[in-house]
Design goal:
- The chain has 254 residues and is mainly alpha-helical.
- Helices cover 82% and strands 0% of the residues.
- It has a domain at 52-177 and 213-252.
- This is Four helix bundle sensory module for signal transduction.
- The chain crosses the membrane at residues 20-39.
């Protein structure tokens, strides 16, 4: 600035008006360029900060998605095993071979277990409520996340529908049967049962009546059918989740 002032004073002192005007214009242009450069640097710094903040959200979403995929794998295996048992029990019912396959009916009772897939949506909800969500708007990642969480809602509805029905049937059965005998027959070993005063025939008869009831058979028949659809949805969600993780890796350069 001292140099600029000296130049101005010199031009004014020498009465070089035209040269001074040109110099003044040049100085203004120089100042404007400096301001634009400063704004550009500021914008670049802000953009870098925004990108880093977005990456933090995306890394959290990827971590939560990985947790979801592990949970999906476990619940898929569990439902697949129960569905297989229920299908065998259903076949035994149709073939009227229940007496020969009591062991299948004992384990098919797992259809009364209320499994729920519980995804971690914290990272996605945090991003949606942040100022950075617009940075992924209308991108492939945005589309994948929308599909992912839409399917999560569908799965939750299907699970609730089945579990509510199962709980209602179970509640009715508990009013019709002495569950102490049923549960003992289902979970205790033969050696342990033989040590009790109740004869084995009484356990067997109670269990036969229980498994022959309409509510019990309704539940295992529904599980044999509906679990396959649930498993298919779990697999679809898992595939979308893997795509979400890959897309996040591409954005964050991991």
């Amino acid at each position: 600035m001292k140099i600029f002032r000296k130049i101005r004073f010199k031009l004014l002192g020498e009465n070089k008006t035209r040269q001074y005007a040109l110099y003044a214009i040049g100085e203004i242009v120089l100042v404007v360029i400096g301001i634009l450069i400063a704004l550009q640097i500021d914008n670049w710094n802000q953009s870098r900060k925004d990108d880093n903040a977005l990456k933090e959200y995306l890394v959290k979403i990827k971590s939560h998605t990985s947790e979801d995929l592990r949970q999906l794998e476990e619940i898929t295996q569990g439902r697949a095993q129960i569905a297989d048992l229920c299908k065998k029990a259903r076949t035994s019912i149709l073939d009227k071979t229940e007496d020969e396959n009591l062991h299948i009916f004992k384990f098919s009772g797992l259809a009364f277990a209320d499994f729920y897939f519980k995804p971690n949506t914290g990272g996605y909800e945090a991003l949606k409520n942040s100022e950075y969500f617009g940075k992924i708007n209308n991108t492939p990642l945005d589309s994948l996340l929308t599909k992912y969480h839409s399917l999560v809602e569908v799965i939750a509805e299907n699970e609730k529908s089945y579990n509510d029905y199962m709980v209602n049937q179970e509640a009715y059965l508990s009013t019709q049967f002495d569950l102490s005998l049923i549960l003992a027959s289902a979970v205790m070993t033969q050696d342990a049962l033989s040590m009790r005063a109740t004869p084995q025939s009484e356990y067997d008869e109670a269990f036969k009546q229980y498994t022959a009831s309409a509510p019990y058979r309704n539940v295992i028949s529904l599980a044999a059918f509906q679990f396959d659809e649930m498993i298919n949805q779990y697999n679809q969600l898992g595939a979308i989740g893997q795509s979400v993780s890959k897309e996040i890796d591409a954005i964050t350069n991991d």
